[in-house]
């Protein structure tokens, strides 16, 4: 039986890795450097595209910090919200939609990334990725952890 901290760390790594792989291969056609620089641009602005490998590192760091934040939030909330406890698949898929909304309506507008034009096809792809690569794995791991207690 794993500790809660270890479970959260492993779950955050899983969700972050699934998400970044989807971003690289589905959204960016294999351009990993571009994905990490885009993430770093949120904090560093256009300098993220001019800097060296450090910017790629910061993009990865910020990406996993965000993944761990959403993982921790779910682990904190799920024992107290009946629907999340009893319906982990539906709860996880809805959590992925929540993550998309939070990132697109709160995080990105506060970042140094310039706002892009809304494209429905891109939104659908991003939402599906967050539902199945982030929300669902987090919810299933949290459900498994709390059920074993």
Itemize the secondary structure elements and their pairings.
Elements: H1 4-27, H2 32-44, H3 47-50, H4 53-77, H5 82-86, H6 88-110, H7 120-147
Span between termini: 9 Å
Q: Briefly note the structural class of the backbone.
A: mainly alpha
Oligomer: single chain
What coarse outline follows from CA principal-axis ratios?
Answer: globular
Order of helices and strands: HHHHHHH
Count, helices: 7
Outline the low-pLDDT stretches: none
Give the tally of β-strands: 0
**Radius of gyration in whole Å, from Cα?**
16 Å
Mean pLDDT equals: 97
Helix content: over 70%
Into how many domains do the coordinates divide?
1
* Beta fraction: under 5%
Biggest β-sheet, characterized? none
